[in-house]
Design brief:
Elements (H helix, E strand, L loop, with lengths): L1 E6 L5 H15 L3 E8 L7 H4 L4 E4 L14 H10 L1 H18 L3 E5 L2 H5 L8 E6 L1 H4 L11 H14 L3 E6 L10 E3 L17 E5 L6 H7 L6 E6 L12 E5 L2 H10 L2 E4 L3 H9 L4 E3 L6 H12 L4 E2 L16 H4 L2 H12 L1
Parallel strand pairs: 1-2, 1-4, 2-3, 4-5, 5-6, 6-7, 8-9, 8-11, 9-10, 11-12, 12-13
């Protein structure tokens, strides 16, 4: 059977999930087709480009200020102004699907790919995202963010039209509307290490957040290895900071041996830290509902501490992990794809 992919490329979470499912399907003998991915001004990471035959298009985008805060109004207006380009991209995506003739499309939260389900009733769609867990009664309530919550429900619908929804979660819960699945991690992630080095590992989704980390870093004795998409030169980097351009494979190996992890409020990096039982501090992007909700969810269930800044004294001393649940991902993926075969 032939499988195509769609992926929302803001941050690294959805791309890592797509890579993980691709690895799973390749081992099962599926034919892997193109992946649809919206162009980003910072470009795609090398480890993503090395995994897929990417069909790039003009898609939805998010906008942040120079402090890393999500600007909701600008994000909305700029995407409205791109409407004609989005229509053109959608038509070309449909043409490509018609030409490729996939049996299954796996969508990792891409709105345009989700909308194509209206035009291809014979293709099976499977939509993956922790966002589908966020609108269930099991997810902890986060106050405020009224407009973003409405937008989340809208995107949840658009990305999963006529699709089997797979809700990724740090923990198991029962729900009749979705298949609940552990975080989908890359194959290499499940290989653990007994070695432990004396450094803190950090993934910063937006490099404009770095000055806040630089402020707190000198008060901490350990080296901090920081990975982000670097697009400009950063001055006055503290002596205990090692600043690296994002490299998925190197970051993954360092995750296994670090003392603790600092990350934004993204789902994927936090999941890897939980799996490897690394003490975890999460710092959500300001005004970003999904990230604040992820942080609260992880904290309530004992997997992380969270704060609005990178004060390293808030790193918890231990990590309880949830290994038994996380190790169920392959079994659940097998059931999902056997149902649509």
């Amino acid at each position: 059977m032939k499988v195509m992919f769609g992926v929302q490329t803001e941050g690294q979470g959805h791309t890592i999930q797509a890579i993980s499912v691709k690895q799973f399907l390749t081992d099962k003998g599926y034919e892997i087709g193109k992946i649809f991915a919206a162009k980003k001004h910072k470009g795609f990471s090398d480890f993503f480009k090395s995994e897929f035959d990417i069909y790039e298009y003009t898609g939805f985008d998010f906008f942040f200020d120079d402090k890393g805060k999500l600007i909701v109004l600008k994000t909305f207006v700029q995407n409205i102004l791109k409407f004609s380009a989005l229509i053109k991209a959608f038509v070309n995506i449909c043409k490509t699907i018609k030409s490729e003739k996939p049996d299954i499309i796996c969508n990792f939260y891409d709105p345009l790919v989700g909308l194509t389900a209206f035009f291809f009733p014979k293709i099976k769609y499977i939509s993956f995202g922790h966002q589908y867990a966020m609108t269930t009664k099991h997810y902890p309530e986060t106050k405020g963010f009224f407009i973003q919550k409405i937008f989340l429900r809208l995107i949840n619908y658009i990305t999963s039209i006529k699709a089997q929804k797979v809700a990724l979660s740090y923990y198991f819960f029962e729900n009749k509307d979705v298949i609940v699945c552990p975080p989908i991690l890359r194959e290499e992630t499940y290989v653990k290490s007994e070695k432990e080095d004396d450094f803190i590992l950090a993934y910063i989704m937006n490099e404009d957040l770095l000055p806040n980390l630089f402020f707190y870093a000198p008060h901490y004795a350990n080296e901090i290895h920081v990975y982000t998409k670097l697009t400009k030169k950063h001055e006055r980097v503290p002596k205990n900071i090692r600043l690296y351009n994002l490299d998925g494979k190197v970051f993954q190996e360092k995750m296994k041996t670090c003392l603790a992890v600092i990350c934004s409020g993204g789902f994927e990096t936090s999941s890897e830290a939980i799996y490897h039982k690394k003490p975890l501090l999460m710092v959500p992007i300001e005004n970003h509902y999904e990230q604040h909700a992820n942080c609260k969810d992880a904290a309530i269930h004992g997997f992380a501490n969270w704060n609005t800044n990178f004060d390293l004294k808030n790193i918890p001393p231990t990590q309880i992990g949830n290994e038994k649940w996380f190790d169920e991902s392959k079994n659940i993926l097998t059931k999902i794809f056997s149902q649509v075969a």
